[in-house]
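Q: Structure for this?
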Amino acid sequence: MTYQSPRDARVPVITAIQVLVVSCGSVYVAMPADITRGILDPQEVGPDGTVTAVGVTYAMTDLVARLGLEHAGRSAEPKIVLCARREAAKAVYVDQLYELVDVKQDQVHTLPMHFTGAERDWFAGIFLLHDNVTLLVNPAWLLGDEREAPGRRPCSGGAAISLPAGAADQQYGQPRRPPVGWL
Amino acid sequence: MLQGLRARTAGTRNLNATRLHSLVRFSIGGRVLAVRIDEDGGVQPWTVSTFAPSQTPFINAVVLYGNDFLPVFDLAGRLKLPTKSQMAFCMVAKHARGPIAVRIDKEIPSLQTVDAASIRPSPDGSEDFTGWCTMGGEEVPILSFEHLVTPAGGGPAPVPERTDVQ
């Protein structure tokens, strides 16, 4: 019998995080994949603004509106991303879904310290992906209480359905070049 | 006696010595401004910036220089100056929180040396400007990036109007 000392145990070092890349208006946003539970079309949302999947009820939230942005035009293909962690569950409306991708942790920078407003709660970091500046959303803020931001209305639509497991693992194509940057 | 003579001479020399300040003269929205050289981290060609949702006044974009994301400070907006659509330069300003990118006009900034005694305080006591000086017969406000980048809630500071020296 081989005795393995506790010191021989290898502690897994997380060197990359998997994110789901979406767009809100003209901004690329990354959502940690470990909180995503599924993808829906907006018309699949219940008339009461909730989604129920695998016994979990998700309250709708419009990420575009929460970030103070304007929705993309008709060319966008909006999606609802089901997100959950512990007891919090939200159906997040985004303008466009792109891909599931691994990002090295050393690629993710913290938001520059000159940003001193609520955006420090919105975003956990910033990184470059396919030459596009992408903002990593803070899952705690995403799934947190929205009552602190009055005036933001989640979108609603469609009928509720049950979502098959593993839908979040699908790839949705490569991100496009972003619109002309702000000058 | 010789030591006393030397001391008096040194003191006289100090009184006659001129303290000089090095300033970087630049243009934004067609308006000439200056900043202390120790706040200027260099000038580079302007690159496309990326909008970043933000509630920080006048900071809602980033640019990538090398491997660093620099916040973009909208100095033109802060001072209520027009933004020219032509090609521009990027002044990398030094700030306690780290370097910031400031879009300035395509006029190449120049280094100017002025007599410290000629720098006058801002007429309205604004903390955004450390003073006024005369460069080439023109009254030029001296701004401080350290004071301009304020926490949320800070208001804009319009550039005070001054007549040029005749």
